[in-house]
Amino acid sequence: MVYISCLLALGLCCLFDPIYNNYTSLLNSSYSLLYFIWIFILDISIVKTIIKYSINKKEKIYIYFLGLLFIIGSYLPYYSTFYLFSFLHVTLAMLAIVFFILYIFYIILNFHKKEPLQAQSLYQWYFWGLSVIALFIIFFGHINGIIEITTLFFIFFMLKKLKIIDYS
User: Fold this and answer.
1) Is the pLDDT reported for residue 101 higher than 90?
2) Is this prediction's pTM over 0.85?
3) C-alpha radius of gyration, the chain, whole number
4) Which of 40, 45, 122, 128 could form a disulfide with 1 if both were Cys (CB 3.0 to 4.6 A apart)?
5) Contacts of 20 (CB under 8 A, 6+ apart)
């Protein structure tokens, strides 16, 4: 499912100019149905992958809540007569992604307590990925498709790297 959402992300990147626009621009085009399907698949794959690392029920509820925030925020129209919808579109989706990234850091911190040497490599990959995203934000000056796809690949890459963690 992760590979499907990554392939869809790359495919959808061909439908708009990723340097100047972001995926939200697909909402106002004839490809809005593809956008809705991709967001749904993306959300399910992130939640399904990250839920494996939640230790207790509160963390699972937290992950499901973040997934719901991401869906709601992404499905709200950006260009709307209600300014609140535009604000919530940006805020909810971005908060969900930021908290997903922070939760990955929380997982690494918990793993550090058991295996500090293995966690060190996870820290390096984590901060390297954040540095690349920050560099792109500074370079482009706004959130565009390249930053969105880099963030998406960073999350999936880190979740792939977290497979060294064994909670059994």
Assistant:
1) yes
2) yes
3) 16
4) 45
5) 144
